[in-house]
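Annotators were shown the component list below and the corresponding predicted structure, then asked to write short factual statements about the assembly.
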Amino acid sequence: MICYFSGTGNSMWVAQTVAARFGDNRLTDMADAVVSGSSLNFSLSEGERLGFVFPVHSWGIPWIVRRFIKKMSVSNYDNQLIYCILTCGDDCGLTNRMLLKLFRRKGWLCRHIYSVQMPNTYVVFPGFDTDPAELEQKKTTEAVGTLDKIMAAIESDSPIDCYLQKGQQFLKSRIIYPLFCRFAMSSKPFRTTDKCIGCGVCVKNCPTHNIRLENGHPVWANNCTQCLSCLHRCPQTAIEYGKQSVGKGRYYYGKRKDSQQTSHKSN
Ligand SMILES: Cc1cc2nc3c(=O)[nH]c(=O)nc-3n(C[C@H](O)[C@H](O)[C@H](O)COP(=O)(O)O)c2cc1C
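Structure shown to annotators:
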């Protein structure tokens, strides 16, 4: 079984690639499962692997994923192999340790925690933008080889060292991550510009079903996990997050828009 969460398609690509290679068609959308209130009780067959695939948010675990893992149960867990594949733009900080702690509390053992570097999607803080086109291409190309190595390690159950971690981990994961979870989760700054045509693509793509159309325009409720799917996937580039996203690039796995393309007419 593969439990996944993806805002802008990177982790979805990983989950689908892993599913195809492992012949594992049991894909569970963690955000949908949490928000829709469906049963989080699962069972695994003998030898079935349990995988988690999701993006790193602020050097930690997205809250929706944390909630899913905390609440889920596996009725017949008997040391089946557990693995995690994180996608990140740059650096995962101490997300691996957070995961190990979560699993330890459940009495589960996880020896495979890996990361795959993918194009960056965090654009709502000063200094953060999507990657330049060449870097995005490089990351996407190299991710294929990295994921291949990761899948081989999981298949043979031989852990490898494949986890992106840079400096100042304590500051990033123990100080900034809790602040991010507490203060940066608001959907209030989301707004539409006059380019919005009320097409509802944002409503359809929001992993937490947090957007509805009112009088032909999106309205955000309080279940935002900051994946930025709405902002990046808007076909009109009509969604902004306060002023932070204005003039920044837009990216969705396999598709990009440069800052120059997004800045004009933005209001
Ligand atoms: C709210 C948010 C926070 C992020 N924080 C980090 C981070 O701490 N480190 C990092 O390397 N990438 C970070 N990123 C980039 C994503 O982890 C990366 O682009 C990921 O592949 C996106 O996956 P998805 O397309 O499946 O949503 C962040 C992205 C978002 C939207």
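Statements collected:
1. The pocket of flavin mononucleotide is lined by residues 6-12, 55-59, 87-91, 118-122, 226-228 (CB under 6 Å).
2. Residues 133-155 form the longest helix (23 residues).
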